[in-house]
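Task: sequence design from structure.
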């Protein structure tokens, strides 16, 4: 199969503002959570899933309507099935890398209403689960380096939720992931024998569409995990979430997904034509938000990598998106990409990009 392409390049500066692969819709009809979920699945994709603070702002900006009693989103209580999550979006918890103190974690979490120890402090370099209402100093991580430092030690003592809110407002998030904790220790910023909150928490909640996004925006004293009736989540107009009884009727937010994972293995060129014949195009990723969204879909692939709409041209010596967008945002793995003919861009299931020979047979992700 021959494949030809004329590439037109407009030289200019990359913009951090791009399109999005998913959009939110406010539905001003009062329904129970279950009926709202059904409506969203029939008319859109699902009840709203929120992956980070940027998503939350986009969701709130999708309507000017008032919803004083709150509006349903796609989060529901999943107890007794609980999981550990890191506060920072995109950082995943790996039990094999955990640094629990001896005998920790030492309780059942959400199912034990008399002893809920759902947050984690670092004590002498190891982790203890403890009630989130305790107050400790804490460590903020700053990916944007606004302060000139990667880690920022906050010496005022706050509850875990207040510490998380402070880090998100002033920096990026609470320190999250084993790598960040090791980097913090390596920099010898402070005696690791002191006690701090870190961004690990036990989560009793799950998204309607099955996404594993860890972002939460709970209001103070929320969620009511000890109240079995309040097992569905809603958002207020200020972006704070609370739990409520699922049988109550409220307006709600749906989302439309513009990407789809194709669990068939094809060459890059075959995948390109399949997407163009059945959907829109091979997916392009132009910002971090879309990276996280596509990465979540890639987790379900049956091959170790999935094709994207990223291609290298020897003639012009550059990588480009087949959608004609500039390659501004990048998430290449170590030592990638290099410049080789007959190569296209693929994403590993954990999210990093790699170059691969076009004839490899991979699953792929289309944009609609």
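Answer:
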């Amino acid at each position: 199969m021959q494949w030809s392409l004329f590439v037109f390049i407009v030289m200019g500066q990359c913009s951090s503002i791009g399109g999005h692969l998913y959009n939110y819709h406010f539905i001003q009809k009062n329904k129970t959570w279950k009926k709202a979920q059904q409506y969203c699945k029939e008319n859109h994709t699902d009840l709203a899933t929120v992956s980070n603070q940027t998503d939350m702002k986009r969701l709130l900006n999708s309507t000017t309507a008032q919803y004083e009693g709150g509006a349903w989103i796609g989060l529901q209580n999943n107890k007794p099935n609980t999981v550990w999550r890191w506060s920072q979006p995109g950082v995943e918890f790996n039990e094999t890398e955990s640094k629990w103190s001896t005998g920790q974690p030492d309780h059942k979490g959400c199912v034990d209403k008399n002893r809920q120890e759902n947050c984690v402090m670092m004590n002498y370099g190891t982790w203890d689960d403890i009630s989130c209402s305790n107050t400790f100093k804490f460590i903020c991580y700053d990916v944007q380096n606004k302060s000139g430092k990667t880690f920022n030690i906050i010496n005022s003592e706050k509850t875990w939720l207040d510490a998380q809110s402070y880090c998100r407002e002033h920096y990026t998030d609470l320190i999250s992931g084993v790598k960040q904790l090791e980097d913090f220790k390596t920099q010898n910023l402070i005696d690791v024998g002191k006690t701090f909150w870190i961004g690990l928490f036990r989560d009793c909640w799950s998204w309607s569409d099955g996404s594993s996004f860890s972002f939460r925006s709970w209001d103070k004293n929320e969620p009511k995990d000890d109240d079995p009736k309040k097992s569905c989540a809603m958002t207020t107009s200020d972006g704070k979430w609370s739990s409520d009884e699922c049988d109550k009727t409220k307006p709600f937010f749906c989302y439309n997904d513009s990407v789809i994972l194709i669990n068939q293995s094809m060459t890059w060129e075959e995948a390109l034509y399949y997407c163009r014949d059945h959907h829109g195009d091979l997916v392009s990723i132009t910002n971090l938000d879309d990276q996280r969204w596509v990465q979540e879909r890639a987790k379900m692939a049956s091959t170790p990598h999935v094709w994207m709409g990223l291609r290298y041209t020897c003639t012009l010596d550059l990588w480009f998106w087949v959608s004609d967008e500039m390659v501004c945002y990048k998430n290449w793995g170590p030592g990638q990409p290099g410049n080789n003919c007959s190569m296209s861009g693929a994403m590993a299931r954990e999210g990093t990009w790699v170059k691969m020979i076009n004839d490899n047979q991979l699953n792929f992700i289309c944009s609609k």
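The CA atoms of residues 4 and 88 lie 42 Å apart.
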